[in-house]
Amino acid sequence: MDSSIEIGTDDRGSAVHVNVQELLATRLLVQGNSGSGKSHLLRRLLEESAGLVQQIVIDPEGDFVTLADRYSHIVVNAGDYSEREIAAMGARIREHRASVIVALDTLDIEAQMSCAAIFLNALFDAPREHWFPALVVVDEAQMFAPSASGDVSDTVRRASLSAMTNLMCRGRKRGLAGAIATQRLAKLAKNVAAEASNFLMGRTFLDIDMARAADLLGMERRQAEAIRDLERGHFLGLGPAISRRPVAVKIGATKTATRAGTHSLLPLPSAGQQDMRTMLFAELETQPLPTPPPAPKPIAAHELIQRFAEQEADDTDASAAETALLPEVAAPDPEPAIIAALHDMLADSDCAFHPESFLYQDFSVRCRMQRLGRVPLDLTQFRKRFALAKGGIFDPADDKWRDLLSAADRLPDDMLAPFVQIARAAIEGSPCPDDDALGRAYGTRSPGRIRRLVDYMEKQGAIVVRSDFGGRRSIGIPELGLSTEAE
């Protein structure tokens, strides 16, 4: 199968091709100011490769939904689904190799970042048997991988940046090839941009962006001025999937178009001034204007201060009287609701692999369903309680877990769940948990990460690992003086 597609022509009118198979292995970065033609370039790339590879588009402005009118893409309007449903769809998309467009235009910026993070993490965490090749296009990537904190919360920013970093840095082995577009390289996180080996640089005007673009293209700084003079729809391309030397590309025409408004000049309406006034103010001028209320009489300053003092005294007396009449009602104990919510969440076998922000929101909703006036745990407290629950401890106040929790204090919170699971097995005299069980507790399907986790806990003196000649493993907890059964 020929994996090359034509995206445009060079200065001599010769066709410029992109090798899609090479692109899947080396990733793509597109940069250009607003109006330089980035979305047109991505649309051309998607149209030409639609029959060659599965396509997944993160579309913050709803520009690419029209691809579904001509091709087999499925549009997912993110505003219509919950976070759990978005995560489930991400897993199914990898399994069934569906080409989709995730339209985020109905969400605010923080919700867009959170939704994109959940969706990308679901793609990334798919089982190994579903690691099929897919081109993941992210438009306006500086929104999802910002180089600096902005108006969104740090939790959402970190989750979104982590998902984009996974896509660009570690996605290749999972079949995910990132193709990201940004208005400014200076606004895009450097560790995300640095993983691309193919570049298409459009018009930009700021010196810092021109300098970075020139560095990526291997041009001298004095040649960077050429980037400022590029016309709309013209790009400089470089990379193993495009060309070994910088090449000027004029992007070709597309078969579909965005539903956004046109940027071309249009003739003004021919209606006269009076007709236009009639259309604008129809049914408004016939309605009588409301009579403004009479202006209040001015009050002397000393009189106003006296009124405030009297009102405050009356309010204090009334509040005291009401308090005396009300019976004393003890606040409900939130612990049963917390334990019930944690049990329900862990009934989902995939919950350990969901993002922290999604889990905390799920926990908050479950607590409110239990008629708690407010969420009883903040994010930091929830992180620790959920880790303990994954290890099998739902009530940390129980005295029988005191020594175990004391032994766990030397470890970071993210390692709490697998350590508790091992320690419980030692206390109960059960076989040592296998790597799959520890992976579910730790939130990973990577055997290598589990091995590194066990090594780290052993170096910290929290555990001692023993293996017999039959390859069976047992883990001891020195602080408890106990060991699991060999498994």
Automatic annotation (TrEMBL):
Coiled coil: none annotated. This is ATP-binding protein. The keyword ATP-binding applies. InterPro entries: AAA+_ATPase, ATPase_Atu1862_pred, HerA-like, HerA_central, P-loop_NTPase. Residues 24-191 form the AAA+ ATPase domain. Keywords: ATP-binding, Nucleotide-binding. Pfam families: DUF87. The keyword Zinc-finger does not apply. GO terms for molecular function: ATP binding. It comes from the Bacteria.
